[in-house]
Specification:
178 residues; alpha+beta; Peroxidase, domain 1
Amino acid sequence: MAELTTLARPYAKAAFQNAQSQKQLAEWSDLLSGTGQIAAHKKIRQLLTNPGMAELAKADLILDCVEQSTSDEMRNFFAILAENHRLALLPEIATLFNTYRADLERTVDIQVSAPFELTDEQQQKLTQALSTKLERQVTLETSLDKSLIGGVIVRTGDMVIDASVRGKLTKLAEALGS
């Protein structure tokens, strides 16, 4: 996985710099996210490794699957990916691109798991607290996790805040076992 990210990084940076200079971050993000999802599909992955199909035809096929108009720069980017046999990296490129965009725009998507439905007021308070702590604009996505006794688990990227009762009990058990 780290190797794929390493291979994808220069392409993601190039796409990001171009999108930023053209003021088309949203368009590029949508295109890369869509094509990344397409390229991640099992049948498409098999197609991308087929040596009997021309690389540019593979790129055109992926671009034709998204319902979005593409600029010449976007088509050129996909042609370069195809020539270098890197179309399979589209999911990683999309992830990195969106990470660069979130850093630039100072935004973060956060997933919150709770054992019950959070009220609008609770979500608003949590959003404000996390915005202050992370110094970013927060977009909250909530999900139910009936295995939790109480509290919440907050996830974003590689950061996890386990404020659940189960997590606290686990820490207590570990401390007592030491």
